[in-house]
Design goal:
The protein is an alpha+beta fold. The chain contains twelve helices and 13 strands. The protein has a six-stranded antiparallel sheet, with helices on one face.
């Protein structure tokens, strides 16, 4: 098509499901954009009413493509709009690939201003998608095609227009055919548009429109950062926030979403383990050299901790035995001459527990028959023999000292008394000196024999 009515030099620059857009020259020489409704759709009264309402909304905003006039030429409805030097977002991504988060942030800010303006006037776009976002050469953006927009509170055409818009970017409530569509639906579609700008694909893709609509309703999309790792996780989180299934869980407005997206760009990214500074190793404190113990030394030390040294037990037992013998010798020396030697009273043996090792002391054996400790019955009180604390039982071999032969005790003997022969003399003999007993001597007692038994 080279001309349409008074417009000439028509070149197609875009096509949607309902209309085609051409760049044209107006009668006064201005470059304009012409949107034409095809004849087969123009015959449908519903489709024709939807097309004409765009020019009747009266929206005038720097980020909305301006509508100049509308009319009909040879039965074909048309809308004249301001021509914007640039290209649609879908064509830009198809040509240059996914956009950077910074470029996407600027587009979202401009588109959100247009949506907030329309929402404040009770208009829901209902078809926000990349092909309806025009990106200028300077990076700014405008929102176009309010042809399926719906004034909030007006129910005309709702039954027949319930599911309108592109299925790839429509909200779950639109996909479910909800009766009332709110601005939250446009927030979802703007989030899906941001998803496309960053990844180069729509949030959901399937073989049919019905399958895609079910995914919008039932399934969460993959995270943006999983598809494109170079996108900061915080930025992807904001996009996923706008794609929540429930309208109440999305950002409260398109502007709130765009501002959160821009703020996420300046958020500090988490420090990875590769970039995190590693602590420098500190020198270990110097310690005095310690001689390494041999295995034998360690074993001996552990054994000594569990029992009392044998030499200490033997020494203590010897001291006790010598003390007993000294007491016995004093008693025997104190007896008057001729008095029978008192028989020792055997000492009752102390009970010995069997669960832990004890110290058994066998005392002096005055005769060939072994006897217990001899304690005089009357001369002196019995000596108290201290009992050592029982050592901890250890699995050690029994130590038996050799027992010497007992030594027979020989009591001291008194020298015989020699009678004095009287001396005949006239003189009175001097009185004889008083008879005195010679000092009693007795052999030293034989040391006691001590047997130390460690009973486990």
């Amino acid at each position: 098509m080279r001309s349409f009515g008074p417009y000439t030099n028509l070149v197609e620059i875009g096509r949607g499901g309902m209309a085609a857009v051409y760049r044209a020259t107006a009668p006064d020489g201005r470059l304009v954009a012409l949107k034409l409704l095809p004849p087969h759709l123009a015959a449908d009264a519903t489709m024709r009413a939807r097309f004409e309402q765009e020019s009747n909304l009266g929206l005038n905003h720097p980020n909305i493509v301006q509508v100049n006039r509308s009319g009909v030429v040879d039965g074909t409805p048309y809308i004249e709009m301001a021509y914007v030097a640039g290209e649609s977002l879908d064509r830009l991504v198809a040509r240059a690939g996914p956009l950077s988060p910074e470029a996407t942030a600027r587009i979202l800010l401009d588109a959100s201003r247009a949506l907030d303006y329309a929402h404040a006037r009770g208009v829901v776009h209902r078809d926000v998608k990349p092909s309806n976002v025009i990106v200028r050469t300077d990076g700014s953006a405008l929102l176009a095609d309010f042809g399926v927009a719906k004034a909030m509170g007006i129910t005309a055409y709702t039954a027949t227009m319930a599911r309108v818009g592109s299925v790839f970017f429509m909200s779950p409530e639109q996909a479910a055919g909800a009766f009332e569509i709110t601005p939250a639906s446009d927030v979802y579609s703007l989030g899906a548009t941001a998803y496309y700008a960053l990844t180069g694909r729509a949030p959901f893709e399937a073989g049919s429109d019905v399958a895609i609509a079910r995914q919008h309703i039932e399934q969460p999309p993959r995270h943006v950062s999983d598809l494109r790792p170079e996108v900061p996780r915080a930025v992807g989180d904001v996009v996923m926030w706008a794609l929540q299934k429930s309208p109440s869980q999305r950002p409260v407005s398109a502007g709130a979403f765009a501002r959160s997206f821009a703020a996420a760009l300046s958020a500090p990214s988490p420090v990875s383990s590769q970039s995190r500074p590693q602590p420098q190793p500190q020198p270990a404190p110097r310690q005095a050299p310690v001689a390494a113990a041999s295995p034998a030394t360690v074993d001996e030390a552990l054994e000594q901790r569990g029992r009392t040294p044998a030499w200490l037990l033997a020494g203590f037992a010897g001291v006790v035995a010598l003390a007993c013998l000294a007491v016995l010798a004093v008693v025997l020396l104190a007896l008057p001459p001729g008095q029978p030697t008192p028989r020792p009273t055997p000492m009752r043996a102390l009970p010995q527990p069997t669960s832990q090792p004890v110290l058994s002391i066998f005392t002096v054996q005055p005769t060939a028959t072994p006897a217990s400790v001899l304690v005089p019955a009357t001369a002196t009180p019995r000596p108290i023999v201290p009992v050592l604390p029982a050592p901890v039982a250890t699995a050690t071999p029994q130590i038996v000292f050799p027992t010497p032969l007992p030594t027979r005790f020989v009591p001291p003997t008194r020298p015989p008394i020699i009678p004095l022969t009287p001396i005949t003399s006239d003189a009175t003999p001097p009185p004889p000196p008083p008879a005195t007993d010679p000092p009693m001597t007795s052999p030293l007692p034989t040391p006691a024999v001590i047997v130390v038994t460690a009973t486990p």
